[in-house]
Amino acid sequence: MPTIQETAYPRLKNHVSVRDLAVIYTPNVDELALAKQVTRGALAQLVFLVLLKIFQRLGYFVPISQVPTVIIEHIAGVAQIQPAITDLTGYDLSGTRKRHLQIIRQTLHINCYGKDARHILLLAMSQAARTKEELADLINVGIEELVRKKYELPAFDTLVRGARHARTILYRQFYQQVDARLSAKEKKGIETLFIVEPESRFTPWNTLKQEPGSPTLTHLKVWLDRQAWLAQYHIGEQVLADIPDVKIQHFAAEARTLDAARMLEIEPKKRLILAVSLLKVQSNQVLDDLADMFIKRMSTIHQKGKDALADYHARNQQRADELVQTLRDLVIAYRTEGSAQDKITAIEALLADQGDVILQRCDDHMAHAGDNYFAFLWRFYKSHRSTLFRLLKRITVRTTTQDTTFVTALNFLLEHEHKHGEWLTAPKAPCLDLRWMSEAWWRLVTEQRNHDEVPKRLHRRYFELCVFSQLMMELKSGDLCILGSNHYADYRDQLIS
């Protein structure tokens, strides 16, 4: 049960500041005139003003005996009334008080809390309960609605009971909805989650609540198996339709705290909604986990490629120096005095039979120029190949932009998963649009320098690496989404319309 301090329910402070007395509890000229008009005697005038100012501050009436003495004395001073405080003790039980309450309500155009106010309160709380869980939040919504409709606030316990009632009614509606929309086969499948498996001595419910491990290749394979396992308990979207996501998350969080034995003790309809909510949340989460693992594995592959390039440069520094020395000697030979034939003879003397070797070393050096480490990636990727293709077939990727060229390339890659030749024939009709490919990848994949030329063939290994690398970047940027996931869902669905 929430405490009054956790809500916006107005209450009197234990210590009233001088500023509050001046700003909140000082009657104005009209209020002083009203008090003189509707009361007889200084005592009645004072208690009327106290009730009026307290109600304006709180939105409900309190007994005079509960009003701090400092407030009464302040109002008495403003009204120039000096009765003894002890003279007020019998006022709370008098008929005069009831008459004063009615006058104040009429003056402030406030309706007494009753049947209509309760209906308005419960309606506001029921609507809020669809997106809010805490009773304190529901109470605050109810207070705001009653104030807006100019109703007197009821006792705090009344608000608590109303909030609890509104939430209970809403949850019963959710329980009924899920129970009615699940088929007998789906219900039977859900109930099997709580039956101990003889070979493992654990229930599938325990498996359902497992968390992912570190993003290793082994754990990626395990989580792909988990995604296939969860697919066996697929629940139609209509089952949880109209139930806000925040409530589904709440039911799933509650389900995580319960073991199979506790779940079996719960009312069947509530057990169904808890299980269905956790199945949905975990089915969405496993896609997020797979995407996270994929991104981290590809990032690791790229980092190993960069390390391999650095190691290659370190090991071949001497060879690079030799190529520079050879170039220097060739330039000097070319500048030798004499005829053109003399210069050619000098150059041939330097090259001797090493022309092909030098040319090959130049090609090797150029292949890794500009810190292009892509050529080193295959050795680290090949152990992941089958798992990454399996992942690609288990998820549904969609573009969040109007550009569908990369998705077309993904489908082309899947169609040629079982090809093992060095080259893939590029389709002619329709032509495979590779404008998304960077220059560094373009040269490796097509062995062409001009990016405007339509390639006739694609280097299979480099093409696979290029596509999976691009998939990693577009998932991170949000240009691609995964259907059914949370973190990698289409961001456009989360925009406020």
Structure description:
The mean pLDDT is 89. The chain contains 22 helices and four strands. It is an all-alpha fold and 497 residues long.
List the helices and strands and how they pair.
Elements: H1 18-23, H2 29-38, H3 42-58, H4 69-79, H5 95-108, H6 115-128, H7 135-148, H8 156-181, H9 184-191, H10 204-208, H11 217-231, H12 245-256, H13 260-265, H14 268-315, H15 317-334, H16 340-351, H17 355-367, H18 378-381, H19 385-394, E1 397-399, H20 405-415, E2 423-425, H21 439-446, E3 457-459, H22 460-477, E4 480-482
Antiparallel strand pairs: 1-4, 2-3
Helix pairs in contact: 2-3, 3-4, 3-5, 6-7, 6-8, 7-8, 8-14, 11-14, 11-19, 12-14, 14-22, 15-16, 20-22
